[in-house]
User: Fold these one by one.
Assistant:
Number 1:
Amino acid sequence: MKIRIGIGILVFFTLMALVGPLLLPADPAATSDAGLQGPSAEHWLGTTQTGQDVLTQIVHGSRVSMGVGVLSAVIATVFAIAVGLVGGYFGGAVDEVLSVLTNIFLVLPALPLIIVLAGYLPQRGVASVAVVIAVTGWAWGARVLRAQTLSVRRRDFVEAARAAGEGPFRVVFFEIMPVLLPVIATSFLATVVGAILAEAGLSFLGLADLSTVSWGSMLYFAQNGQALLIGAWWWFVPPGLCIALIGTGLALVNFGLDEIANPRLRTIRQPRRPKLATAIPEEARS
Amino acid sequence: MRFLTRRLGFYLLTAWAAVTLNFLIPRMMPGDPVDLLVARLKGNVDPAAIEAMKRAFGISDAGLWTQYVDYLGNLFRGELGRSITFFPTEVSTVVADSLPWTIGLVGVATLISYVVGTSLGVLMAWKRGTWLDGVLPAATFLHAVPYFWVALVLVFVFGSTLQWFPGSRAYGLEVTPGFTWEFVASVGYHATLPAVTIVLASMADRILGMRNVMVTTLGEDYVVMAEAKGLTSRRVMWAYAARNAILPNITSFALSLGFVVGGSVLTEIVFSYPGIGSMLLKGVENEDFPLMQGIFLVISLAVLVANLLADLAYVILDPRTRQ
């Protein structure tokens, strides 16, 4: 159930980013005389101070926000795979160095680092922002993948591949990596959310490309346009809600997967927890 | 003890990495920050100021290694250079003025969030199948909500619309700073919304994390044993299950601290709170590179110290690490 709702949310937003701009082809930055209007039949989500249609901005902005999220998650995941798998497989000094590097990036506060890096960027285009976010977003994935690699590397098929004379890089990327694909997928999705949040934060601070419409830049202009004082809730509620919903969708998918792995975490059960009930294994009870 | 020495070594290494990163970033990025600045000011800078800025960055024609040694030497003397935004104030003075605000706000908010979130997680695991399960979807949603958006919504509802709480600044214009009841009350009143933002946005992780570990712990033999002995369920819940389930939660809490700090940077900016986050943004907006770097360093070191404290707590709570 959780997984289904989660996937539903994710599919909805993916479609919004892919198909939405085709259905609402109007320029999201186009201004009009009808400024600061509440939701109406003409403007479903109202308009901004300069008369831009909020719904059009949300739909077009989803491309930028999710695009930066996916792009930077791809970069971060490739890096996480390289560091995690190589460290986990080779062990020894290589692993020691890569682990310390991973842990350092895990402990350093990501957002301040992103802000500082963005501060030095001469041009804040979509691609450079994605790279900056990826720099701080790979460590968690690398740590998870390293742990998984450690558990896989002594399995028979890996030993067999090694015995057959396959080179270490072939073993790592063609024998071990395919087995870890589900883990890679989960960590990739989690990284996407982190990156969407980071992009939104950066745009909100005015440190990303403000000439393109994204959910973060909408929030930036809403705050600077006094939307809070004027009471124009339709201007700043939808972008934040979209970000939070994508995150919720993804968390639901992840929790759902966790519950399949660990049935105890499920919520649907008998109304009262009888004493000692936990002593009986879940499978035996049903 | 070995555990602590190892961790201490790791934090020293990380501190060194943060310091070195701070040294390398401006030098790796295209363009010289001072040239960038001078170009921005369209040449209206007198040569002495340019020289001062170059000194502040430690930019010289000397080799990279000499610059690095000079930079480290300055750091050890606590010299972070001069801020350009607040010229000629030293960066360390700007930091010293803004840091207490942040530590007070983030410290109190994080503490509340941790205590409430952990307790809720324990209760939710204990009372699975009751109405408390309804908190789960809400927590899942809060877990993904951006801090600054929570802040915007709170300012809108409780600041502008209902006007219950002030939506900006750290204390009222009518009070003068000092150890008076008026001032302290004003500070508390102004900190309410920012603190609620941080608590709301960071609590969900604690709830979900604690619930999951607690549910697993509840299946352990010693918990069943405690129940079978006829101990009160309160005792079983807190003294047996929660005490053990809290250990992994402390580690994950320490790791998520960087996230809380990042979120509070954004929160401060929404509330124009005079903490280190607002200063960081000012530094970036004004291309005040010494200020940016100094603040990043201080934030990183603060997170490292907080992590070290969490490790200490871990050692105190888990006797196995003391062997």
Number 2:
Amino acid sequence: MSDATVNDTTKTTGEPLGEAYLDKFPAEAKVVRSALYSSFLMLALGGLFGVIQTLHRTDFLRIMESETYYTVLTAHGVFLVIAFTIFFLVGVFTWGVTTSLDRGVEDIRFTWVWLGTMSAGAVMSAVAILAGFTDSIDMSADVLFTFYAPMQAHPLFYIGLTVFVVGTWLAGADWFRSWWAWKKENPGERIPLPTFMVLTTMIMWYVATIGVATAILAFLLPWSLGLIDSVNPTLTRTLFWFFGHPVVYFWLMPAYMMWYVLLPKISGGKLFSDPLARVVFVLFLLLSTPVGIHHQYLDPGISEGFKFIAMTNTMFLLLPSLLTAFTVVASMEHGARQRGGTGRIGWLKALPWRDPVFAGMALAGLMFAAGGFSGMINAGMNINYLVHNTLWVPGHFHLTVGTAVALTFMAATYWFLPQLTGKKLWGRSVALVQVVLWFIGMTFMTNAMHRAGLLGIPRRTAEPQYDGFEFEAGVGSVAELDAQIALGSIFLTLSLVLFFAVVIGTALGSRSDDIPANGYAEALSGPEDSPKILDNLKLWFGLAVVLVIIAYTFPLLSIIERGGLFGPDITAFPQSIDIVSMAWVTAEQYAVDAFTSASEATQAAINGVLR
Amino acid sequence: MRISKEALLIVLAFTVPFVVELRTVLAWFHIEVTVFESLLLGAALIVAILVWALFPQDGSRDTDASGSS
Ligand code: HEM
Ligand SMILES: [Cu+2]
């Protein structure tokens, strides 16, 4: 194989020079740019809180009181997984729809309205969260990104979230409108792939957000306003996870979209199969909502049977991800062979590794495979008990959302920025180092988190060390694991600094007319090969709703029957009812006694097992 | 250079998870390696890769058309 192919950069970014997105859609480019910049702001804040909390809980650097930990953790979670991801994806979706339908949005004012709505919501929630840092404002929202009862936030937090979600609903309406207009002018034509992906993702989102909208509007918001006295925690948790699982696909599907429509192009080839990509998105639409109960394996008040059904559904959900792995790798191989790659493994060398867009996405995909494996462990009802609420779980999702999604978004940014600004990417090699650093940082951090979880070290605590009890590592020591986690977080922070350097460097640059053309990958097997029924969005929407009804009616009914709509008189955390707290203290005393006597035995057992 | 600078960077990145995990894997076979030893091992591996990458087997192949963009 000739190395010259590897080094040929013009190939990596594709086509001869042509029209950049900005030239064709100047007004839309501005909206997309604003969405991306909002998302980067959230990434910066979230990342900062990430490293603060990591160094705190590993006891390397403590610049805050442990009581503040939940404010930091909430900000980290909400800013990153709700705001960073969703602001980014609405930008990318707008790009995908306008590019693939080859038409601007129907009314750019409406587009600004939804982006403005989302921003207003984000600001409200952020204010409520950040107010937790000061005592001078009587407001806080330390409820973590899984904001279910009995944790209670200031009403502004819930109102902000609602406004934000309404913004995304309007955004979806905008894209559907574009599609309807296009359909009128192009009767009988297949929906272009990126638009198909956007629409299926949005249908899933509409179905999924019913759960969270109900939880907030019917229960949490009235409760935090003092209109109702209590809620049924199992009910609000179940409604939360109704949304809480599909939301992970709301982050992931845009990343998949980029793996399908950008990655093959950047590898120098074509998408392996357009029909398969459509099947994958339809499967996600159908399967991602009726599985939320798999987050509640350890919740009391939901019978084992419903949990078992959720587990079975979850395992089916592996299918579209495995199909994606196959299609994307096949497309990359096709690209590599187009570039002169040969051999069974040798073709890997012909991939454009020097291109940060490619390297970032490829590394993200690879880590996603690892995340898939730990995800299978989480999904297994019995083995989940071993890792539930341990550091394993953040280990898992820093591979999925924290890398597969976040790294793909950062890598894609290096492709989008020139399209959106008309400026050349500043610091290509810096960008390459950035994606590699993220990969290394996450390797350290998540590997140690998974292992720490297996030892039972809990997540979501500033003080994972306990008096009179020592966690024992199977290999090495707990101190080493902590060091790995802290080291990883420092790499990640450096990586973020480089990312912002590239973004700012590019934004400050001057216009260039040397920008690669806007576009996306063609397919080896195109839309004409896919059965017509795949484009029948009404059918898939209907089926998705039916599956949700089947999966959720009975669990919800039985939860309401047992606890009542407004619950067995649960008040907000922190608890203040005397009887309850007295019973609690007594129980705790018993627990402590039992624990002390059991811990020696446990320790002996652990030593025995690990030896 | 036997491979491009960028490919070298990627190869080095891949050695990181390899070295990190190696210790756990070896422990499985009852071979205990300390942190220090695995750091040494990692360093040795990286030096080996660098030597392999930087010294071409014959001088004729100057591949570095890259020069960076
Ligand atoms: C600078 C990079 C990052 C560092 C150092 C970091 C570190 C951490 C740590 C140590 C935890 C666990 C804290 C605990 O349970 O006590 C955590 C939680 C979390 N991280 Fe990150 N993280 C980073 C980036 C990200 C990214 C990019 C995302 C998503 C896009 C993300 C999403 C989350 C979420 C959702 C949680 C769970 C919050 C909760 O339990 O409520 N993190 N992070
Ligand atoms: Cu889930």
